[in-house]
Amino acid sequence: MFKNIFALLIGVGLSLSTTFAQELTARVEVSVTGSGEIANVDKNIWTALQTQCNTFLNSTKWTNDVFEQNEKIECNFLFNLKNKTGENKYSGTLTVTARRPVYGTSYYTPTINILDEDISIEYQLNQVFDYSSTSYLNNLSSILSFYAYVIIGLDYDTYSPLGGSQYYQKALQIAQLAQTSSSETGWAPQSSKLRNRFVLIEELNSPSYEAFREFMYDYHRKAFDQFVTDFDANRPLAFEAFKKLEFVYTQKSSSYLLYLALNAKRDEMLNLIKDAPKNESAELIKIMNKIDGANAARWNKAAAGN
């Protein structure tokens, strides 16, 4: 099934070069689902917030690289605000997703799909947005800047081995400034939280989790970008790349990066397995039953060709 769908998308002729996909084409949406005080806030506030977040992410120059319009990284930020916690202050969640094109096709593969449940922002109409690498300005700017650099780092990792390192360092600096300059949640280690911004950037910068970053490069560049030449011959390379997630699991079974990889790639890999001979995916299925046990039934069903 996946092979047939993929075949229909071949022929776009995207440029394959040493140039990376550059910076952001971001879309920000703000929804309000809470009741009480937040339901009575002037709706113009949310429209302005959405517009300013979009402008901030899309107009800020995040790297020193030269890029073309079609090289920008497509990403989405969905704020779901639930409570008013103070004067011009709100809390809720943020879903962050991003994708990158597969060479020679119109197919896009996801690179990140996470839910941040520690969102607390302060915003008033026409508030000034800015980014500083040396000082903490406010939690909203820090959150947007942090995820901008995480998205860019992940994208660069898919084009070059460990290519996103400098951007993870920038995200780490943002987290450290927020941790020392504010009391907002999500920036510091919490015993009750397996996943927050602190854990994410700590793992991305740790040599102990380089297997995740190797997976990102091998899966995208060595496997998916080669599908256009020979799908069946290169599909096993995607399976081999996916097996590297077992090393992440060995480091920490509750790893944020393991969650990130599985959440972004699970459905895509399940579709690949459905197309593959059973002997080609057998070892991978065993690994997935161990490291993604909650979804073992889905992996086994895909391997059975159902």
Short description:
This protein is of the alpha+beta class.
Keywords for this entry:
alpha+beta, globular, 48% helix, 11 helices, 306 residues, 17% strand
Report what the structure shows.
The protein is an alpha+beta fold and 306 residues long. Helix content is 48%, strand content 17%. It has a 4-stranded mixed β-sheet with strand order 1-2-3-4. A hairpin with a 6-residue loop joins strand 3 and strand 4. The longest helix has 21 residues. The protein is globular and about 60 Å long. About 3% of the residues have low confidence.
How is the topology of this model organized?
Elements (H helix, E strand, L loop, with lengths): L1 H7 L15 E9 L10 H17 L13 E14 L2 E13 L6 E15 L16 H21 L5 H17 L15 H8 L5 H14 L7 H13 L1 H7 L4 H20 L2 H14 L4 H8 L3
Parallel strand pairs: 1-2
Antiparallel strand pairs: 2-3, 3-4
Helix pairs in contact: 3-4, 3-6, 4-5, 6-7, 7-10, 9-11, 10-11
Looking at the structure, what is the overall shape? Answer: globular
Number of helices: 11
| Largest beta-sheet characterization | 4 strands, mixed
Judged by helices, strands and strand pairing, the structural class is alpha+beta
Low-confidence stretches: 13-22
Strand runs, count: 4
What is the first-to-last residue Cα distance?
11 Å
- Beta percentage is 15-25%
Classify the helix fraction into a percent range: 40-55%
Order of helices and strands: HEHEEEHHHHHHHHH
How big is the Rg?
20 Å
Q: Order of strands in the sheet with the most strands?
A: 1-2-3-4
The mean pLDDT is 91
